[in-house]
């Protein structure tokens, strides 16, 4: 089974590591594709503008361009199209529109590739032997596959990613340095989360906010706290449990 991975970044490379057969990388930055291909014995570089086909086409691009890339590249698949972009409803709809006769699956690793293995959300638009084989590969690599409806996934990500990231970044922006000996356990936990989130790629987190806006809900919560009197604050404290 030969595979084309469109998007040769960390997520695309992580997925390639699950595969046994030949894998080709295509990327808007050809040097990135060349570097990715060099990491795999059966790796090669493909062109985004070519019309050659593959058994499987995997889309591993930023969420903001997912639908466009799916519509351009999914028709190159002979058997299956897989989306790794991080949202599910719109990518699955785009795959169905241009690859109706192929197997279709959306996967979302709920971790950064450097923290693999972990939980992988999975929604199947059209199943079959390729989807089954790729799902087994995920499990064999130590991941836990979590079946989910696309809308349920995207709604959950508004909290799990959008609001959580916004809260952690807001803490990082608002906090001031303190002596280590005065740090509390809660402060240390938040600092560890800040360090983990801010060690990533800014553009990825910007895409998450654009797709799963968490700032608006966070701002509303902060406003409620800021405007509360003592009794209202205590009630909000209890509500937050």
From TrEMBL:
A biological-process GO annotation: tyrosine biosynthetic process
Signal peptide: none
Molecular-function annotations in GO: NAD+ binding; prephenate dehydrogenase (NAD+) activity; prephenate dehydrogenase (NADP+) activity
InterPro entries named among the record's database cross-references: 6-PGluconate_DH-like_C_sf, NAD(P)-bd_dom_sf, PDH_N, Preph/Arog_dehydrog, Prephen_DH
The UniProt record lists the keyword Oxidoreductase: yes
EC class: oxidoreductase
Keywords: Oxidoreductase
Domain Prephenate/arogenate dehydrogenase as annotated: residue spans: 1-241
Keyword Oxidoreductase included in the entry's annotation: yes
EC number: 1.3.1.12
Pfam families per the UniProt record, alphabetical: PDH_N
PANTHER family the record matches: PREPHENATE DEHYDROGENASE (PTHR21363), PREPHENATE DEHYDROGENASE [NADP(+)] (PTHR21363:SF0)
Name listed for the protein in its UniProt record: Prephenate dehydrogenase
Lineage of origin: Archaea, Methanobacteriati, Methanobacteriota, Stenosarchaea group, Halobacteria
């Amino acid at each position: 089974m030969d595979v084309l991975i469109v998007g040769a970044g960390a997520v695309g490379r992580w997925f390639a590591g699950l595969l046994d057969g030949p894998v080709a990388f295509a990327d808007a930055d050809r040097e990135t594709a060349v570097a990715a291909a060099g990491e795999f014995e059966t790796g090669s570089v493909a062109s985004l503008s070519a019309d050659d086909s593959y058994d499987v086409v995997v889309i591993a691009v930023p969420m903001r361009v997912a639908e466009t890339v799916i519509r351009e590249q999914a028709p190159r698949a002979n058997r299956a199209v897989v989306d790794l972009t991080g949202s599910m409803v719109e990518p699955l709809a785009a795959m169905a529109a241009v690859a109706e006769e192929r197997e279709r699956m959306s996967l979302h690793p709920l971790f950064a590739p450097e923290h693999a293995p972990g939980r992988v959300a999975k929604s199947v638009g059209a199943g079959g032997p390729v989807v089954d084989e790729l799902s087994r590969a995920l499990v064999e690599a130590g991941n836990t596959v979590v079946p989910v409806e696309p809308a349920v996934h995207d709604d959950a990500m508004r909290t799990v990613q959008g609001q959580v990231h916004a809260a952690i970044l807001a803490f990082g922006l608002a906090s001031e340095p303190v002596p280590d000996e005065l740090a509390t356990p809660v402060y240390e936990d938040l600092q560890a989360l800040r360090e983990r989130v801010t060690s990533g790629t800014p553009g990825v987190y910007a895409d998450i906010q654009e797709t799963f806006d968490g700032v608006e809900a966070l701002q509303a919560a902060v406003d409620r706290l800021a405007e509360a009197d003592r009794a209202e604050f205590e009630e909000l404290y209890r509500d937050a449990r």
